[in-house]
Structure of Type IV pilus assembly protein PilN:
Amino acid sequence: MKPVELNFQTRQPLVDRFFWGTMIFLVLLAGTLTLMNTTVFFSNEAYLDILKKQIEQKKMTSEKKTDFPPLKQYTPRQIESLKSEFQYLKNLLKKDMFPLSQFLDAIEMAIPKSIIINELALNKGDSSLLLKGESPDAASVAAFLNGLKASRKFSIDFNKGSVVGGSGFSFEIIAHWKWDDV
């Protein structure tokens, strides 16, 4: 028979050895992090002071630049000439430009989820946009028209609407850009 060996040694001395080493390491780590944080804080404070000084300098220089030269006086003939040049430029803009992005923003804000736009055609000549689409019912089209009219930058013509196969409604809308805002 083999004798039974009993070990009455505790693990306490092992824990004591690692405890003090770990504590010293943690205290050194906390001190290092505190020192680093303090250094970063004071360097940021110095940077903020530099920025404050630059802002004050810019304010001082902007206050000095408020001396504007007197406005030039125009004769009535020159004013009429400027107005005619402005009107000429306005007419050029009407011919060459259509505010498509503004119109698309108005469509995005006004269109119900049930409406599908099938065709979008631009006519630069008379500054209009043709919209053709489908809807499950006429009420959605009416809501869409009201939303487009609410933008107040367009005059809306509802050309035609018709029932498609008993299950839907097709429509055609022409939107004319109002050039009063230019």
